[in-house]
């Protein structure tokens, strides 16, 4: 099997940010992403998803290290202060390097 | 004073939530119910609007728009007086200047149950009242700051779910007219109350969740969330009398002025005013004011309207 190393950037944040985030990702050159609904608990209390403004989403982006860092830096500068958001990077192996 | 059974559904949800019951409605059902309610309210208003459109109505709409600007200003002054910081005071004020379509649905059901007539184009006022407070709130918080993306904000406000459904319903109703709408009438006749009952059950569950965070904010917020609806209702009722509305219409307008938004405004402000603490506003509007209005407020506002009329106002 011919595997290639890429970076998986996972962002967990308020559902209210989804539209803005998608615009940002497009501009910063993310090759693609997957968004799913999420709930949980963190520094800003329980995010139960019981109400429109109380839901979370999880965004997963597989891309090169460069782009992942650029996106993470942008998110930190723009959203960390006022929104519930965490993001983390991990190394993953993918089969088709040209896709990511 | 006997409670309407639909309100008992709310109390039931509230208790079940407070007892930490396993009871939970699927989120998609809540979405569906609120869509049906908003469409039903819009349709009914639209049908009547087509019959009663007049220049006088345009004048009334302008007054209601003014009410939507005045209420958040008043709320802001009260909140600042209570010692809330500027941004949070502005955010909460935006919620209280705007309206709750859920509360409107309950007052409509209440009037129907009591057999009290009211101007049936009221849903138009719901749509009008929803918007200005959001803009006033943002201006109060940060003036005309450059970093506000007004285009995006406009989309969020005018194309928001509740406004779209209300206006869509109003327009379809107005185009169709009374005869053609007959097959759809169950939306706002026989179907209305069962849907409202389920909706309120879910609202009770949600409100109980909000009550938990009340401890965090204390008596100031509780006091505001109970007093502001009374102020609002008084102003709304006086305006209703001034505009020459019927007894029912005056009570409905008072209820609208007393109600606080928990759908359109939180969504818009989360993006436009991220510094504001969203749970402060939601605890007040959803946890306190909404239950207060539907259990105690609405009958009270009807009495207020009766009293004003008795005084010849």
TrEMBL record, chain A:
One MF annotation (Gene Ontology) recorded for this entry: enzyme regulator activity
GO terms of biological process kind: regulation of nitrogen utilization
Name of protein: Transcriptional regulator
Highest taxon above the source species: Bacteria
Gene3D superfamilies associated with the record: 3.30.70.120
UniProtKB/TrEMBL annotation, chain B:
Organism superkingdom: Bacteria
Segments traversing the membrane: 30-50, 62-83, 89-112, 124-145, 157-175, 187-207, 219-239, 251-273, 279-304
Source organism of the structure: Pseudomonas peli
Cited Pfam families: Sbt_1
InterPro entries attached to this UniProt entry: Sbt_1 (IPR010293)
Protein name as annotated: Sodium-dependent bicarbonate transport family permease
Keyword annotations from UniProtKB, A to Z: Membrane, Transmembrane, Transmembrane helix
Transmembrane helix keyword on record: yes
